[in-house]
Amino acid sequence: MVTSVANLAAVLILAPFLLGAINRTKALVAGRKGPPLLQVYFDLAKLLRKGFVVSRTTTWVFYAGPVLSVVAPFVALLLLPLGGGPAVLSFTGDMILFVSVFALARFFVAAAAMDTGSPFEGMGAAREVTFSALAEPALLFGMLALTRMSGSLSLTKMLDPGAAGAWQKASASIILILASWFIVLLAENARVPFDDPTTHLELTMIHEVMVLDHAGPAFGFVVYGVALKLTVFATLLVTLLIPSRSGSHALDFVLFAGGLVGVSVVVGLVESSMARLRLVRVPQLLVTATLLAGFAVVLVLR
Amino acid sequence: MTPTSLELLAVASALVAFSGLPGLLLPAGSTAAQRIATVLHVLGCAAGAVAAAWVLAGDTATARFAWPLPGGSVTFSLDRLSAFFLVPVFVVSGLGSIYGEGYWAEAHHPKNGRKLRCFYGLATGSLALVMVAGDAWSFLIGWEFVSLAAFFLVTTDRDDAAALRAGWIYFVSAHAGTLILFAMFALLRDATGAWLLAPSAALGSSPLLRPILLLALAGFGFKAGAIPLHVWIPEAHAVAPSHVSALLSGVVLKMAIYGLVRVLSMLPAYPTWLGLALVALGVTSGILGVVMALAQHDLKRLLAYHSIENIGIILIGLGVGALGMARHRLDWAVLGFAGGLLHVWNHAAFKSLLFYSAGAVIHATGTREIDALGGLFRRMRFTGTAFLVGAVAICGLPPLNGFVSEWLISLASFRALVGEGGGVEILGAAVAAPALALIGALAVACFVKAFSAVFLGTPRGPHATRDVADASRSMRFSMGALALACAAIGLWPAGAAGVSRRAADVLLGAHAGPAASADLGVLGGMPLFLLGLIAAAGVAGRVLMRPTARTTTWDCGYAAGSPRIQYSASSFAQMLVGLFRWAVLPDEHRPRLNGPFPAAGQRFESHAPDPVLDRFLLPLFSRGRSLLGLARVIQVGRLQAYLLYIVVTLVVLLAWSASW
Lengths: 302, 660
Description:
Number of helices of chain B: 25
Radius of gyration of chain B: 26 Å
Oligomer: heterodimer
Helix content of chain B: 55-70%
Order of helices and strands of chain A: HHEHHHHHHHHHHH
Mean pLDDT of chain B: 90
Largest sheet of chain A: none
Strand order of the largest sheet of chain B: 1-2
Distance between the termini of chain A: 37 Å
């Protein structure tokens, strides 16, 4: 329990670094020097101290969006095994809560966007709820396959395929899940090819455009929430990918943290090497992710 | 248990059923008539709810009472399953009656207020009769009374052409369903040898089993609104007074689920195909129901399509449970059944809440058109909060009640995959969890759209800008009570799941009992913990996010923004409706553009008429009518001719039977 909480605290601190790692990767590929690796921390410190201009049309729902966008990934991190140790909270059926808290956050983030009455933010909200709806079944199919492999109904054991020898028995399924969930990671975190977090043309964006009116500390909540959410989805991949645990907590955590940074680098490389998809293509890619995860289930069920 | 609970229930039902009669003796428009009806109705509902809760908490399984009549006897029986379904009947109906005080005040509706109260009571009383029916006859009598009373409730406003149209569609489809049920019960009588609705070992080996179950799916499906038999639902729910819509959606649809569950409880064993059929029907209704809801811009029609979605979720739960039974895997069967049944309560609570708050909006603004509203949250704070609670609950989000039942069904689906061996049962159960996730995510899209278009942003038209007041006290009371119910079930999942497991015992047959319910309580304090976490983060957010200035929404420097540039309900749903165009079949009217800008008066419009009713059935019927016109030649209007037809028919039949 103590190690789990310590791991959680470390991950909460590490999260913004991952965004920095993505930006640094992109800068290096483009031949630029790029912002410092700790830039997101500086941004957060600055945002929390800044003033906060609020639209007159808004209600308390406008504030609920940023609050829940931090709470949801935080709850998800409570449920995930971080760095070899068990999760802080683990119970039968926790994977369903995992998916549901993100849906709860999505409800309020999108409603907060609509609260401003701005067409840009409405557009972002509409896209967000559309794409996430298509991404959710992929997540569930992957978890079903993992449940079958591990015989467990809790994320802690489910994500530890090394223990059950699943890497040997059902490696094809695990590879399919990894591929599917990587697509889900890119979609849920609004990365290229689904969305471009660096563009400042509102018409082309999804997530960034939803939070146009959130300024200062509220935007700080949003940015930290984005960092945590990326960490959550990277954790899913890394925990699956590392096939065994060494037994030493320190070593396991270093390996895990290295894996998180590795996923960030891969995300940065993907962003450097391809352009954003046309919006009409996005649903097709998400359906592909669902089909990949569906195949994984069929493979373990035979 | 003595039949006391049954007696109390009989008194309560009679009180409710005839609560509107004294009012008929008083003049139209009299407030006294309204008060008497409401008081009697609420008293009856309270007594009925007490009786039901008593049975649900008790240990003995069934109270029976046979009433000898000429030519046979009518049996009434009250077990935990009946009691479980009776609770929402009395709660929703009682609260609806209080809501009606403000919503359909006699003083404002002297023409039809007394009629509405009369049939509202009758419908509730007959619903109770259906739930305690012990044999096919009393069941069908109650069923028919509900159908007729509901017809008069839907057509409360006789001057409204849309209400009459909806009423007739309902009338026809309800009776099509009843006809199928007549056939089903007749076959059931053949297979079991009695009219009683009791478990029968003979049923399992009967060759009639498959037709009986298919007829039950079709007949109850008509009433419950499983796609493609849902045609009456959007029409009737949209035009009826809002507390009637709540009764229809929250309770009358559940009557069909009750009937289906009652028939299932008679089976000695569950065939695999039945579970697969239920899951398939549920997934289809769930996904297509919410997709069709997304395409609507009439607030109550949107809610009506969500009833179809939620019936789908209930069917998925029952189907997963049935698959577990077919596979002799009690661990997942009990989760599926308990989840499906709990969703009956949950849907009754949050859907009634949504209809009440939608009704309050319609009452205040005078329109059901979502795209004419906006920005109501500041002026209708209570109603808006109530709608928000209902919206979060219906999307199956924690920490409210919808999450608990959907969590149980999803967990059943995951449980199915634990263990060795494959098979079609496991595959069928495995579909449930991802399907529920998709349904939930689409529901999030739909309710973000509905909530924000109605309550957030700025008013879009004169309906929303006029002097809008929040709901009256009686309406707020009913909404508040249901919102508390949603929170209570959501925050105490173990208790709620325990109650629905007690009702599900009837479906588990010989395996019934608390032994099968290991997983039901594991959610424990998680929703409460989540709520605490959200509250703590909310406090932190309040401290950190202090507005320093207020101004207009960021408009990219374009300073002439109007409320009309906001995303509307239609534009919000456009992408998803486009993805499911093959199922929704929307109507789009695009103006021809002859330049960069549309000319004055050119508008883009899109509508989503019901794909089954408006695209298929109504054209079919109007074709059919001209074809059947040919048969009119035999309708000559002379008695002698009709007698001749009878004689000829009899002779032909006699000759045919003699030749056997």
